[in-house]
Amino acid sequence: MPVFLWQGLNKYCKLKYGKPAALLILWILFEYGHHIWDFSWTWLTIGNVFGQSPQWVSWYSYFGVLGGSTWILCCNYLVYLVSQKAVSQTGKVVLITTILLPLLFSIVIVKVKIRQPDLGQKNILLIGTAEKGEGNFSDIRRMKMIDTILTKRTGKNADIAILPESILFENVWLNRFPESEVFRQFKSSIKTWRADHIIVGAVLNVSDTKGQHEEERMGIKRRYNQYNAALKIDNSDIIRIKLKKVFVPVEEYIPPYLSFLNFDSFGFSKELNNSDIFEANHQRYFIGICYEAVNSIFLASRLNKNVNAMVLLSSEAFFGSMEVGRKQYMNICRLRCVENNLSLLKSSNNGIVFSADHLGNIVNEKRVYGNYLMETTTILRRPSVYHLLVPYIFPLLLFALSCVIGSNIYLQKQIKGPMHKSEI
């Protein structure tokens, strides 16, 4: 797509100057747009390649993953010019500087971040499971099986216990859940697990006369919407709810304007006005659900200056036997730590349970094949400035592209002017 647009720009605007810059801007605009539309597959963003070595790109806390894409494309173009012997010695110096300067910048940023004061630490319980789709056990039996692991623990009292995405899927209704046996089990688990708060993933049903789904109960048909949700349960009577907003295209979500297509999909609904932040013991945590962590722009744009850490509920059963996919997913999540200067706590179903610090370094990691408990601590911090800069990415890219086009128009007029005069 960006290449076709670039060719059209060359043809109709007759670009003679700054063609590489125009292609670069169009590519970054394409990646940005791919973050914000309904069929985003941001896994393939070029800047994600540094997930295994986040210390190389500590400057993502200013420029984000799109800055990484820009750096890679610039380096590749300069290497191409050198290989074609199209640059002088000065050009080679520019190439070396382009490669090394961001790396040196990263070293400086890491040293500065290590010395920054933190906001204290919290004890966290990360719970892993190994369900394959809708498992063989009822929700209540599954919770009781998990309960046997957590009641035996001997560690310190925990601030939060975090369970995986969609671990509750058996007829979880918004208006009925507080009266359910599963909810009562969680209320008692707060004491036996010695955790002040429990965050659990659920497939949540909400009655809606225009809903996508339909059920028949006692001969009466009722329509409803289904949400991929995270529920926070504590000693109060209030259940906090976060709804997933970024989905795997088609498999999880089909936009309303394509509802006429008969795709096989979970058919989740989306509610953008719902908050992504939970408060626990006077600290604020950003709550992400699985695929949301792959989307750099979404995550940063939903943060605020009061968030102190990030929590991720995931289910990785869809990877099947593809372990490399689980590793890539973990590494991409590590880049979110670097961008936002926040630690990340990830529970998982049939995947990798891990915690990472604000530099993207792994603190604890475990590939789970059954019910598993990880007791870890997380250090609380304040987010970087990246979330404040994200709203300006799109207008800045448009401005840069207009400057390239405007410069071409101006320079071509300047050249034509003297030519006409000389002809006279």
TrEMBL record:
Residues 17-78 form the Apolipoprotein N-acyltransferase N-terminal domain. The chain crosses the membrane at residues 21-37, 57-81, 93-112, 389-411. Keywords: Membrane, Transmembrane, Transmembrane helix. InterPro entries: Apolipo_AcylTrfase (IPR004563), C-N_Hydrolase_sf (IPR036526), LNT_N (IPR045378). This is Apolipoprotein N-acyltransferase N-terminal domain-containing protein.
